[in-house]
Design brief:
The structure is a homodimer. By secondary structure, chain A is of the alpha+beta class. The first copy, chain A, has one domain. Chain A is 24% helix and 34% strand. Chain A has 14 helices and 27 strands. In chain A, strand 20 and strand 21 form a beta hairpin. The radius of gyration of chain A is 22 Å and the shape is globular. At the A-B interface, strand 10 and helix 10 of A face strand 10 and helix 10 of B.
Amino acid sequence: MDTPWQQTSKEASFLCSTLTVENPFQTHDEFLAWFQSRRTATRFVVEQIPLAEMDQWTFAKNPHRLVHRSGKFFAIEGVRAHTNYGPVPEWDQPIINQPEIGILGIITKVFNGTRYFLMQAKMEPGNVNALQLSPTVQATKSNYTQVHRGKLPPYLAYFLDHDKARILVDQLQSEQGARFLRKRNRNMIIEIAEDVPPHDEFRWLTLGQIKQLLTVDNLVNMDARTVLSCIPFTNIAWKHYYAATSQDYPDHFDVFGRRLTGFAKDLFLSLLDRRPVRHTLDEIISWFTRLKTRYELEVRRIPLDKVRRWEQTEYEIRHETGRHFSVIAVSVQAGNREVTHWTQPLLKHTDYGVVGFLTKKFDGTLHFLVRASLEPGNLDIIEMGPTVACSNAEARAKQPNHPPFLETFLQAPPEQVRYSAIQSEEGGRFYHFQNRYMILELPPDTQLDPPEHFIWMTLGQIIDFTKYSYFNIEARNLLACLNPLEDRE
Amino acid sequence: MDTPWQQTSKEASFLCSTLTVENPFQTHDEFLAWFQSRRTATRFVVEQIPLAEMDQWTFAKNPHRLVHRSGKFFAIEGVRAHTNYGPVPEWDQPIINQPEIGILGIITKVFNGTRYFLMQAKMEPGNVNALQLSPTVQATKSNYTQVHRGKLPPYLAYFLDHDKARILVDQLQSEQGARFLRKRNRNMIIEIAEDVPPHDEFRWLTLGQIKQLLTVDNLVNMDARTVLSCIPFTNIAWKHYYAATSQDYPDHFDVFGRRLTGFAKDLFLSLLDRRPVRHTLDEIISWFTRLKTRYELEVRRIPLDKVRRWEQTEYEIRHETGRHFSVIAVSVQAGNREVTHWTQPLLKHTDYGVVGFLTKKFDGTLHFLVRASLEPGNLDIIEMGPTVACSNAEARAKQPNHPPFLETFLQAPPEQVRYSAIQSEEGGRFYHFQNRYMILELPPDTQLDPPEHFIWMTLGQIIDFTKYSYFNIEARNLLACLNPLEDRE
């Protein structure tokens, strides 16, 4: 595994790290044991409380909304959306307003020629299992301006002062547009040359190890997934490497002496392939331009107590049908956080959602069915998203006008399932918000006639658009779970 | 000139058309004679009138603003901007609000193997010379929904119904963020296979001819420039062609049997060069992410009669210092428009502005100094822009806190000037708004230490970001004036 690539190119070092699952500092089993020990070692009690019993949160006026007394962190507000997209032309809903750009950051470092990532075992009140594997840093502006008067989160200083850091990834990426109003975070991966001081809740893992952990339900958190999705896996260095090592493409495919087979090989080839098998870059941009021109979205902030069809009870703000989500309050007692007790609101989801990509081969190259996704919190009308992203999936599937292809995922035959795991959305804002992340591969002869807001793209095309911030968090986080370098032989 | 490229690739056909200045349908001199004849043949009288004498325009309330009685077209509104970018943290100003996406479109067609563009001689009330060369179509939604009850503009149907059209360019691009509130247009180039009916005000020109006309002051209008700036001049086909024809790069350079020299060669090499001589794509995205995170922009709509430091007289809404611009009203009598008499407001500029790029070679490759530009009408805080974009340039240069590098352009020695011409901004919204468009090339040993909101990029990198809608209209329209294929020998 000691090749010149490790020294010369960050892309190649990401590649090597993905191929590395043996970690001399911490084996897979040692990691799991440590992670379990963190879960039991830490006192972390989350209880739902009446909305009125939150101590630093209150309903403010003009407009009516739920805010922190400091004016910082986030607010729960009401919005009224109008659109000519989809079956519902107008609706009201609560939404999280947090108009500041936070940092989601991972520190990386090369030890003995292999790149490692400093990951954190972090408790969040909304996690179904309290503890999940998180980036080195998850910091709101409130965090680093110390609004809550706690300790500065470990390692945050490296992200604020770049003198000691080499920036490898630094992209502004959006959060869930169905739940957040125009929220974005700065997704960063930085390399630190100096010795990084150890902390109890942090461990160095290879990308290969993290990819393994992404096959486990609810282990790697949303913030880690979005940062990992920004890693520049397609780059000219790869193509050169590929050209140098591939003998008789596409029947043989070899990375660092290993032969890729099956779906991993298909993924890798789709990653490298930006040829216009289906659509050129210009055609995809034209498709997106046409939809942005055609679809209108008007989002107006309204008082939270004037949100039609939503009602407030002692314990929650809920939709009259019980669908969608509800706003609840929790009390948290924690032993390893910056402060040890707090209360806060969370958006509660009761049932599982589905986040899925349909894939299919065209002329032997795997393509992903991308959907133009319009959400009230989008900064610019639509974003590119996965084929399906739908909360409360089973209930939605029984309603008329449910999203196209939802049933395809709910009824998928096992032989089409290429990836399937339950993943949690951010536990600092969402209570038990879980989605089944799925990749299906349809047989090449499947006849599909997707509506106009769908388009087929290769993985390489998707990664290019991701870099320019065109893809939504559901798509990015699902793709982060894939491992195009999985060693199948 | 008859090569397989003409048939196989749209990029190559754009290249061929750029190299073609001999037009058998219409020579350069014939075009100029025809254009002059259109100017004299058409009655077009523009008179400034009191604001109150506009017949379809009125001041509406809640908030106070200037609107068309139909509610369509555009409105002049007030905004209050807060930012931590630049020397002025807060200001009020009038701004044009036109919250709909129009179409700026050019029809193209291949005759005898050469691609031609259907350009229009179009009168606009704000043009200094009434008539300018315009795209085939400039249509607001009001145009094609026929709010003004005139004739449907010629050729618009081809852009609304794509059955007969092959789309070559289709990008959503922004307009001036200092004057328009989040205004964008769909920039399109479409190819029509069937015979296109002729109209008196339209002529077929090659890209080479249009590039020649872009060296003339105030001849090619803003809308034509922005559409032309979207042409995909960098593409893999070019690289292949370049590799096949370039014998001993970079000393010799040859396109279709012609040798490029001087600045044209430098431009062409910079266009093809996306190697990270100065900054990689990831580094540029990191730079932009950092600035978007650091700089805040809050723009609030306020009543037009509450815009501080602006005053309304009988004939205009003006800044108390007389600087910036003023809102005026004009009466128009025209013989070749959809309607023959109308009144409307325009934004009047009294002095010339400067729109300029500083360029410099690094390791032999020409780089452009790109500025992160924050304007109140930007959709997303900042856009990438030219080194300098400044209205009323001479007056601004005498004030403290004027934009960096403005004096470099005003005092440029002739030997550094690679392009210089006066170009007009859109005459349907602006009255006599003229900028001197300039490209300067600084000697390679020039020491510059640009502030953090500047970055050096190759032309190829700029074109890539343009495709993803990162560049503002000032930068795009200046770059449209350049001809990297100019035949210098």
